[in-house]
Each structure stands twice: as C-alpha cells, then as structure tokens.
C-alpha cells in the first residue's frame, strides 16, 4: 500500500525561503533555475562486473554494475535478450533509507530508468538471442544509490547508460539444436540509442531542473521527461503530491529536449575519455 | 512490456480509420459508473470501461493504525491498486507485483492534490482499488472510480479527478486504448486531471512520441477527461436522486 510520505519539519520551514529565492531566479547553491550540478562520470571501476560506472551529480553518488548471464527469453519475445533494472537505495546513502526489500521509491526509480532504456531501444536485444525461445543473454542493471542529494532519476539514468556503454559481453558459438559454447572472447554490448532523463521540479509557481535534496523536500511535484538521440520522448513520469498545468508540461518538454542533448554529449565525452 | 505482434502485417486500424473494436480514433469505450455499491465501506464506486471492471472502496478518515503512520498536520492518504488473479488472460499471482506498487504510488499521487487532507490530521484515508477484469487503461479507470468513491465517502475535495489514456497505434494517436492496442501499440500516455481547476495530477508515458505527438496526445486525453468528468457528476447525482426517490416512497407510506 502506498502512503503519503512524512516531510521533515525543517523542510516545511525552509519552503518559504526556497520559494522566495527561486522566484528571484536564484537557488541555494547559486545555480540558475535550469542549470545542472556538476556531473562526474567514471567507468570500469568494478572489475568483476561486465560494465560499471560511478556518477556524481553534485553530491549525489550513484554506482551502476551491469552483469550479463545466460537465461531464457520471455515467451512473447523468444528472439530477444532480456533487460532487468533493479535499484537499491542503500542505507549508506541517507539517514532515511532503511535496509530491506525495495520500497515504492526504489521500484518507481527502477521502472522509470527501465522505460527510458527499453522504449528508446537503447540495447540491441535482438543481438543477444543465441537460440530463439531457449537461450538468450540477460542484462542485469543494478543501480546502487550511495549518497542521496536529490535527483536520483537523472543520475541513475546517466550512470546506467555509462555502464552499458562500457559493458563487454561474452561471445558464444551455437553448436547444434540447443548447445552453445563460450568462445573465450568478448565484445561490446550493442548500444543503439542514448536516452537521457531530465527531471524538473515545481516549487511554488516556479520550475527548476535537477532538484537537490532540499529542493525535492519542498517541491510540489516533479516531472521527468526522457529524450532519445533523435529528440523523441520515450518516457515520462510525474511524481509528488502537486499538479502541473498543461502549459508547464509543454515548456518542460522543450527544456528537456534541449537539456538532454547537452547532457548526452557530456556523458558520451566523459565515457570516451575514460576509455582511452 | 511485451511488444511483439504475431504478424507484422496485422494492422489494428482499418483504412477507414476504424479500430479493432469498431471505435473511431478519438472515441472512448462505453463507460458505466455506479456510486455507493458497497455496504461496509464509507464510500465506494464501480466502473466499467470497455471490458475493464473495477471496484473501489474508501475507508476513512479513520484513526491511524498503527499510530506511527499518522501525520500531525494532515490525513495520510493510502492507496492500493490490486489485480484479481482472474482479471487477466493468464492467472496472476495475488502477491503485489512491482507494477502494482508503482501504480499504487502514482494513483495516490493523482488523488492527493484533490483531497483536502489538512481537515483530518492524525487520520488515514484508505483507498482500495480491485481490478476484477482488466482490458487496458486500468490505472486511469481506477483513478476515475476512486475519485467517485472519495466523493461518496463525503471527503472534502478541491475537485474531482478524472483520468484517461491515449496511445499510439499504427502511427495514429488513439484515445482510451484497449488491451490489444496497448500491448501492440507504439506508446501509452495515461493522464489524470482535476477538470475544474485544469491541472494535471497524473502524467506518465512510455513508448516513442515526437514532441508534437506528445502534446497532441495530452490535449486529446485532457478533452476525454472532461467528458469522463461529466459522467462522474451524473453517477454521483444518480445516487442522490435514488435516495430522494426512496425517501419519497417512504414518506408516502407514512401519510
């Protein structure tokens, strides 16, 4: 069952200050309304994973490990590999995170990242089929939130893409009806698209991008728009207790499209720099 | 979500612009709403939208159990979206899935802006939606029915909440997609609004849409929500007309 979350009393007191600040075009950390915090991307940090990344968005830290295993395809997609996204809100990341099975926030986060990757067809799942209906490669994306300072959706989506871009998967040869053999070599994971999530928060009457923890605590609502490399929208998710006016949605979509291409080139550049 | 189509040449929209179930592109499925259908719940509603059959019960405002879930300045709104094991083609496990958990959250967040929860601190308002049969668009139909059940429970609200999805099928933007259209379509865009205030309370999307398609779809969904809101008002009025009628009958006997 989903219940109204508890807001910290400090957030309630801060709300007015933050609204006044944002209305004058400023933010607590000195950013302008549509600025992102500095983004740092490192890849290939977990040797035992097929691909990995560590992304810092301001003080938010997210690690992603990609693991590739052999498995069975879904019945309705016998010739496609399988993609699974899981989020762990690790207790290290915040005094409010508790150990245990994923709660609704972790599940929503995983499903929003999953939709962006799946709907943009970021991974060439068709190339991961070994024996149709029997054997395919299964991609596990495990998102590990290590320090929570707001905007987990965008940071997790960036980290997932960075880890996928640097993933290497084992190659197999098919021998007969249902036998496969590892070739002992690997290849890059086939990546076809680069979806980027852009999250806007509405605070008072103003809209900002990349909300920090403090801003998320006082926001009315958030809206995430995931944009693919061709400027097509491939996922959207509204969250929070408040509302959006249709005109606000339109302007957030415009912002998301222009911001996503900026973030995409930043990420691709950082991944490239990390590889060389 | 499965996105395979048995036969790529199978089109879901005919050359005449008529859909698999005979509807036009911007036509809603037949909708039936009824209010006050359950005896023990404080408020309840039943909705049929196409083959969707959904029952919603509201309990509260009532004392919070356990006590620590209570908030001191408002009521806690709690929501459960649940699909019956027999509601789909293949039996579903009754255990809550990840999808159910996400939908419970977005449905709650779609209703939160409407409920004036500040009037009932330290209480809970529980909304239970049971999907008895599912045929695509159940989250939206659940929201439409939940808002009726909240009104039926007499809980003060800023506005009703009405919801409807649009999809993209065979390259066309279509209103209120049914299950086949949803599964084989290129996009799904569920929307909920508060019709009198003109504000969006639920917005999700998966698939692939251009900015122009997204905005056109959003407008189509908003228009449909306004139509659904008209039906909600009717359903609520009907309940009170019935009470009035039965009171007249009762009064008649007395004389």
Average residue pLDDT of chain A: 95
What's the order of the H and E elements of chain A?
A: EHEEEEHEEHEEEEHEEH
Radius of gyration of chain A: 20 Å
Strands of the widest sheet of chain B, in order across it, are: 1-2-3-5-4
Give the amount of beta strand of chain A, in percent: 25-35%
Specify the structural class of chain B: alpha+beta
- Quantity of strands of chain B, as a count: 9
- Here the CATH topology of chain A equals Ribosomal Protein S5, domain 2
Largest pleated sheet of chain B = 5 strands, mixed
The domain count of chain B comes to 1
* Uncertain residue ranges of chain B: 1-6
Per DSSP E runs of 2 or more residues, the count of β-strands of chain A stands at 13
CATH class assignment of chain A: Alpha Beta
Which shape of chain A, going by the Cα principal axes?
elongated
- The structure class of chain A reads alpha+beta
- Please tell me how large the radius of gyration of chain B is: 19 Å
How does the overall form of chain B come out from the CA principal axes? globular
Number of helices of chain A: 5
Structural overview:
The complex is a heterodimer of chains A (276) and B (255). With 276 residues, chain A is α+β, with helices and mostly antiparallel strands. Helices cover 29% and strands 34% of the residues of chain A. Chain A has helices at residues 9-23, 104-119, 152-165, 213-218, 246-275, and strands at 2-3, 39-43, 51-57, 60-71, 82-89, 129-131, 135-147, 168-175, 179-188, 196-203, 206-209, 221-227, 233-239. In chain A, helix 2 (104-119) packs across helix 3 (152-165). In chain B, a hairpin with a 7-residue loop joins strand 1 (31-35) and strand 2. Helices cover 31% and strands 29% of the residues of chain B. In chain B, 48% of the residues are buried. Chain B has 255 residues and is of the alpha+beta class. Classes of the chains: A alpha+beta (276), B alpha+beta (255). At the A-B interface, strand 1, helix 2, strand 13 and helix 5 of A face strand 4, helix 1, strand 8, strand 9 and helix 4 of B.
